[in-house]
């Protein structure tokens, strides 16, 4: 098999491919931003290496929308058999996805979906149901607070579909299930622990009472937790996240973090590759292919392995 790895445009070549292999290009969002994406890339490459009939071109947009658009165009020009994209911006990438569709190249969106305007141009989405994850987090928050209190929310990158959908699911379910829980403010943490910690520091300065914190993933959630610990205000404060990172799992084990949503980057990566292969094989593939992401709390965490990321 053959793998082409690209980091900011530099290619590295592995073993030669046979004439019968399918060529699949993947352009990822931002591998260096957190351990989830790093683990996803390793798992994707491992899954491709295990299949002798697959050649993959692995690209990383580095969080840059313009670079990802350029990578999409390059993959179209190379006439790959299929493209997998983890969008940096679900709306901005619609024209690039449409170009691939018009060129006869099926596109599988992974992890974070394309905007609604692009759904007609993709073969399938493979990943978590991010709206449902937001719903799960709202339900855990409501249960933990007993139906009343004041909370703040730290979201992911503005414009990023996962961030938008998790916030949507959380906000709608919280208002429905716990009308007596008030959201004091919502600010981005950009999927970054240090940025989320600074955001939480600002919240702590502005608000005398914060009963709970919802963060769009555990990386940001632990940043918020660290800020509250440093300020001497973490005791009694409920921290809820999504995408359970190892740091979130460990904080749960210490009793500092209430709950999250369990999501495996390995499952995510393997599902994306398999979905692309199923599309190329002409199988009847659902438009939306979700894998299970259950709630994880201090009470049931022993049922789950510690995350590898």
From TrEMBL:
It holds the Pfam family Peripla_BP_4. Keywords: Signal, Sugar transport, Transport. Residues 1-19 form the signal peptide. It comes from Roseinatronobacter bogoriensis subsp. barguzinensis. The lineage of its organism: Bacteria, Pseudomonadati, Pseudomonadota, Alphaproteobacteria, Rhodobacterales. Its main location: other. Belongs to the bacterial solute-binding protein 2 family. GO terms for molecular function: carbohydrate binding. It comes from the Bacteria. Residues 24-283 form the Periplasmic binding protein domain. GO terms for cellular component: cell envelope. This is Sugar transporter. It is found in: Cell envelope.
């Amino acid at each position: 098999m053959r793998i082409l790895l690209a980091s900011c445009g530099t290619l590295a070549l592995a073993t030669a491919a046979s004439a019968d292999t399918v060529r699949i290009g993947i352009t990822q969002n931002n591998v260096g931003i957190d351990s989830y994406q790093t683990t996803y890339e390793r798992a994707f490459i491992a899954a491709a290496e295990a299949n002798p009939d697959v050649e993959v071109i692995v690209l990383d947009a580095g969080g840059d929308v313009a670079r990802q658009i350029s990578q999409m165009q390059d993959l179209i020009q190379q006439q790959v058999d299929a493209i997998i994209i983890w969008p940096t911006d679900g709306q901005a990438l619609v024209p690039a996805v449409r170009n691939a569709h018009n060129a006869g190249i099926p596109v599988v969106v992974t992890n974070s979906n394309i905007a609604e305007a692009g759904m007609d141009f993709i073969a399938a989405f493979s990943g978590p149901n991010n709206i449902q994850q937001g719903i799960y987090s709202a339900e855990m928050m409501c249960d933990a607070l007993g139906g009343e209190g004041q909370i703040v929310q730290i979201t992911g990158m503005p414009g990023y579909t996962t961030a938008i959908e998790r916030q949507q699911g959380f906000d709608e379910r919280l208002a429905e299930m716990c009308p007596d829980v008030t959201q004091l403010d919502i600010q981005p943490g950009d999927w970054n622990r240090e940025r989320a910690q600074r955001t939480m520091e600002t919240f702590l300065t502005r608000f005398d009472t914060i009963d709970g914190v919802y963060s769009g993933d555990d990386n940001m959630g632990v940043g918020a937790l660290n800020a509250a610990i440093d300020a001497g205000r973490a005791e009694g404060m409920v921290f809820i996240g999504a995408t359970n990172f190892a740091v979130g799992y460990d904080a749960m084990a210490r009793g500092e973090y209430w709950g999250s949503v369990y999501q495996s980057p390995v499952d995510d990566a393997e599902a994306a590759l398999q979905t692309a292969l199923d599309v190329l094989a002409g199988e009847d593939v659902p438009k939306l292919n979700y894998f299970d992401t259950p709630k994880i709390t201090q009470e049931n965490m022993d049922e789950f392995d510690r995350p590898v990321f």
